[in-house]
């Protein structure tokens, strides 16, 4: 399988059994528009049926960002009701699409906000030393709901809470992310993709039935908490988000500085 589609690049090595899915909008810091959203869903669905692919690496194009979440220029219509909200990124992850092949994220540059839908459904993370993690929601008058539920499953509670609440004022360094277990391997500069691919190749060499069953078992250990958290998320977003014009005002007036830790 090999394809180039708008915003997403997918390549597969049938000899190793590893596919690489690349978020390919570096000019927009790999932010996800609705076209890329649909492509991600279609890609995970396609990979379910491709038996030649036994492990997946997920990464972002360019050096500046893995993914910066939802593209702010994306138009996302919402129902005119406080009881219904449509989150455009809710189903962009592999687990949400019933893909139980292992997915390893190779993180380079910024990973923030909606990127956590992808990282929270990856099986483990490998990071470049320049990678940083942060959640901008509170800065712009938004509730970090789905993102925080997912990250609370892969980070100590205090770390997840601090990242969500500090907004754009603070970024989690790759070194700190490695120290707390969010990142499993910190590579040499520029080495994240190669390291993730090497791990994926090892896993792809094992019998897929056992690997996929293990992936499913690991997710089962936390999916009940995710489902309960997600059940609360639409109401929290509806109650807590500021109107879009006020969010935009806060975005325009944001401060450029931040602290790394």
TrEMBL record:
Classification via InterPro entries: ClpP/crotonase-like_dom_sf (IPR029045), Enoyl-CoA_hydra/iso (IPR001753)
Coiled-coil boundaries: none
Signal peptide range: none
Pfam hit, one: ECH_1
Entries under Gene3D superfamilies matching the protein: 2-enoyl-CoA Hydratase, Chain A, domain 1 (3.90.226.10)
Protein name, as recorded: Enoyl-CoA hydratase/isomerase family protein
């Amino acid at each position: 399988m090999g394809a180039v589609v708008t915003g997403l690049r997918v390549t597969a090595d049938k000899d190793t059994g590893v596919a690489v899915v690349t978020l390919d909008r570096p000019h927009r810091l790999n932010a996800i528009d609705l076209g890329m959203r649909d492509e991600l869903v279609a890609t995970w669905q396609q990979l379910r049926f491709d038996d030649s692919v036994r492990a997946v690496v997920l990464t972002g194009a360019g050096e500046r960002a893995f993914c910066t979440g939802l593209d702010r220029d994306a138009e996302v219509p919402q129902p005119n009701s406080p009881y219904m909200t449509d989150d455009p990124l809710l189903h962009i992850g592999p687990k949400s699409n019933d893909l139980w092949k292992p997915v390893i994220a190779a993180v380079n540059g910024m990973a923030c906000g909606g990127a956590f839908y992808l990282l929270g459904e990856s099986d483990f993370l490998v990071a470049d030393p320049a990678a940083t993690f942060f959640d901008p929601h509170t800065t712009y008058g938004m509730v970090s709901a789905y993102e925080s539920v997912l990250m609370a499953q892969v980070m100590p509670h205090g770390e997840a809470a601090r990242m969500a609440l500090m907004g754009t004022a603070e970024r989690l360094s790759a070194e700190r992310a490695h120290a707390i277990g969010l990142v499993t391997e910190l590579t040499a500069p520029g080495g994240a993709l190669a390291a993730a691919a090497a791990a994926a190749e090892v896993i792809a060499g094992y019998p897929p039935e056992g690997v996929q069953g293990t992936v499913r078992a690991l997710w089962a250990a936390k999916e009940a908490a995710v489902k309960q958290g997600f059940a609360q998320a639409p109401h929290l977003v509806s109650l807590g988000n500021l109107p879009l014009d006020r969010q935009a005002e806060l975005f325009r007036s944001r401060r450029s500085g931040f602290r790394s830790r």
